[in-house]
Amino acid sequence: MRKILVCSDLSDRSHHALVRAAQLVRNHSASLIICSIVDDDLPPKMVDTLKRETAEGLTQACRSLGHDDAEIVVEVGEPVAAIMAIASRVDADMLVLGTHRHRPLWDLIYGTTMERLVHASRLPVLLVPNPVTAAYSRVLAGVDFSPASEAALRLANLIAASAKFTTFHAVNVPAPGWFGGASDSDEIRSLTKEAENQLSAWWQERELPEEIARPVVIPKSLPEAFREMRYEVKPDLVAIGAHGRSGFMQGSLGSFTEAIIRWQFCDVLVVRA
């Protein structure tokens, strides 16, 4: 972890992300880069004033966190395209975002800037919705045997090295009565056993850090299993391996990942393979 890019609009919501990014930078001796984008539809004089005031505000925010050496980038343009260009130019390893002000109709049609950034980014994205009070202590992660799932586990272990890990694998079993009578329980046991065998082989091949607990197999749908584990673990970080290609098309992350991003009850790490 060499360079962490955090996006800020100087709001309280984006300040949460800056605090978390500053914490990670200290822990990993990384470089902190903070960027902000000014709307290019504004009059030129207003743009110049906003750029100057934003740079001053970001400098003050970094100084308050003890990061006088942070690189500050303020540019004009469309937020998603501009941030992706900055991330590429500075060769960032991770993008850290706060939540954004909700605009119900706009968000329904176009998605929030945060959601569009997660869609567009090939970098790991860390979403920080709440005030930061401590380092991570409880990590929850689902495992589906994919490269993205493995990548999410490894990066979560890197940024939350002292946390307790709880991992699970959901087996989507048929609804009761699907196989008829008593055979339901037999089929569920068979599906669960098959998943456990797959998990054992996958886990042994991956040689993941010992700090990461071996997943428990849960014979429920992914949303049901996650909901159950969420209430049991009360995580402060959820790690997700996202599937699909990056881009601006809705659905490229998968419906479950989309739901978690919008739920935002704790920090969420989204990693692509």
UniProtKB/TrEMBL annotation:
Keyword ATP-binding among record annotations: yes
Ranges for domain UspA: 1-129, 136-272
TM region(s), chain numbering: none
Pfam families referenced in this protein's UniProt entry, alphabetically: Usp
Record has Nucleotide-binding as a keyword: yes
Alphabetized UniProt keyword annotations: ATP-binding, Nucleotide-binding
Highest taxon listed in the record's lineage: Bacteria
InterPro entries in UniProt: Rossmann-like_a/b/a_fold (IPR014729), Universal_stress_UspA (IPR006015), UspA (IPR006016)
One GO molecular-function entry: ATP binding
Gene3D superfamilies assigned: HUPs
PANTHER family named in the record: STRESS RESPONSE PROTEIN NHAX (PTHR46268), UNIVERSAL STRESS PROTEIN RV2623 (PTHR46268:SF27)
Similarity comment text for this entry: Belongs to the universal stress protein A family.
Protein name: Nucleotide-binding universal stress protein, UspA family
